[in-house]
Amino acid sequence: MNFASTAIEILSALTAAANLFIIAAGLSLVFGALRIINLAHGSFYMIGALVMASLLGPGQASHLFWPALILSPLLMAALGAVLERLLFRRIYQAEHLIQLLLSYALSLMLADLALRIWGADSRTVPPPSWLAGALSVGGATFPLYDLFVIALAAGVGLGLWALLRRTRFGWEIRAAVEDPESLALCGRNVPALFTAVFALGAFLAGLGGAAAAPLQAIGPGMDSAILVSAFIVTVIGGLGSIAGAALGAAVIGLFQAVGTLWLPTWAPAFIFLAMIVVLVIRPSGLLGAAAQGWGGEG
Amino acid sequence: MALSRRSTWGGALVLLLIAPFVLPTPWLLVLQNALVLGLFAVATNLLVGWSGLVSFGQAAFYGLGAYTVALAWLHGLAPFWLAFCAAPLIAALVAGLTGAIALRARKLYFALLTLAFSELFYVLAEQLYDITNGANGIFGAMVPDILIVPRNGFYFTLAIVAAALFVLHRIFHSPFGLALRAIRERRVRAEALGLDVARHELAAFALSGAFCGLAGALYVVHDQTAYPELLDWVKSGEPVIVAVIGGISTFAGPLVGALFYQIAHDALVTLTRDWQLVLGALLLLVVLFRPAGLASLLERKER
């Protein structure tokens, strides 16, 4: 194995990890603030990618790429807000397994609707023309779009950090995680805040889907495929921690790259081994606190 | 609890005994499938509902049970009956080993650690091509001719499931079962009272694995095949979802949930292209109006 192909493998693993971070950050945010494990998170990701493909149209107009990349996640945020208002809001106090069943039921229905609207055929989306090329370094060619996805993930990470640490909205979210009742007594509209958090989570899933559209074929089954990976990333990092999601994505990217290079057939096993090793050494994830109230007291 | 009343169980058993004479063969097979899922769900609920240990990895042991029977046939290691009896024992052994690791984590992290093991076994089954035929799975005449006859296969499954449920019911009401529920309710207090919590949880994990393995071996009687998807997380989620539908706080809840889910699923698939939409909507109704599970509906009516 020479330098060039090794570097390309590593870049492609990093790209997948960067994309996974965007999605996992949404999952972790929603869990951190609302204590909900949302099995429909993968549906937002899949529909985000499908909407992206539809917005570009059959001609796959390159100049529409940027508006679509923003509009598609916004539509997912709107969908998330509606579902939170109609359904999730009713079960914040319920057993965690009931929440799980609700989001499972929702993921079934969204999968069916997506199949109805977009059909069973898989689609492809080309990257915008000026990102279609590749960067040549020392004999290795790096697709520019891969580099863009990595930059986008870094931007999302910084943006989320700034949002949670530097704005009133972020301050209120952190307060709601600590003590929603006191926050309500201070005159804040906690239910609206929860809707906003859920919508933000759906936005991130949609953004992950829209950004991943040029990287892979888009179609049914994307939803459940991404869900496990997103959970692994979130859990390795520690649930509820955005920095943890970034760390988890990096660990998975690394294991994936190493696995692909040395033992390609066993690459999928490496991810699960990584998760088992991390959780055996640190049972609450790398940066996580102990999970509260999941499956009984104490 | 109304559902555990002897007359209800007896009535259900009589209905199941005459089913082969009433139902057309396709629906008999659906019912047989539902019984296997029912055992799988009750065995999983031994952890989820009884012990408060939410596992998303029970398909590892279910699939192991199925693969024990299929591999014994493929490599000529043992006759069917011996392999069938060995399946729950091997599943229990592997469950004991994985449980010793998975139980180091708690709650959600435990759930996802079990999921990781399930996926790991899935990858093993897919990649060890020389042993398992990989993603193609194992097909063939691995089940004795006598069980191929639908009616015989159904009665065999019914007998095994009924016996297994009887044993599980005895465990549920035994001191061990009560101790598990005490640990679920107040872990710290149970420990303070002198219960060896870790050992109880490990025993529960191995026991659940044994019955999941038995359900997996019964699956082979139904479908005469074993393939990697029997071990993955989607399969692991099934008994949990089914148990929640039926109600995890009762013994019979998961069984009710399994019958409802399997029959609704198989009926909807034949009736409409949008079965996922209808099934999802049905589950939503359960969540919003019967959060304690469908079994609570039956109890209400009987009162």
Tell me the Rg of chain B in angstroms. 19 Å
Q: How are the strands of the largest sheet of chain B arranged?
A: 1-2
- H/E series of chain A, N to C? HHHHEEHHHHHHH
Tell me the β content of chain A: under 5%
Q: Quick one: how many beta strands of chain A?
A: 2
- Rg from Cα of chain A: 19 Å
Mean residue pLDDT of chain B: 90
Alpha-carbon distance between the two ends of chain B? 10 Å
Uncertain regions spanning at least 5 consecutive residues of chain A = 291-298
Distance between the termini of chain A: 51 Å
Number of helices of chain A: 11
Helix content of chain A: 55-70%
Largest sheet of chain B: 2 strands, antiparallel
Quaternary organisation:
heterodimer
> In terms of structural class, how would the helical and strand content of chain A be classed?
mainly alpha
Tally the helices of chain B.
Answer: 15
Percent helix range of chain B: over 70%
Tell me, rounded to a whole number, the average pLDDT of chain A: 87
Write the layout of secondary structure elements.
The complex is a heterodimer of chains A (298) and B (303).
Chain A: H1 3-34, H2 41-56, H3 65-86, H4 96-118, E1 134-137, E2 140-143, H5 144-166, H6 168-178, H7 180-185, H8 190-212, H9 222-237, H10 242-262, H11 267-281
Chain B: H1 6-22, H2 25-50, H3 59-74, H4 80-102, H5 107-127, H6 129-132, E1 138-139, H7 145-148, H8 150-172, H9 175-185, H10 187-192, H11 197-223, E2 225-226, H12 233-246, H13 253-271, H14 275-289, H15 295-302
Helix pairs in contact in B: 1-8, 2-8, 2-11, 2-12, 2-13, 3-4, 3-11, 4-11, 8-11, 9-11, 12-13, 13-14
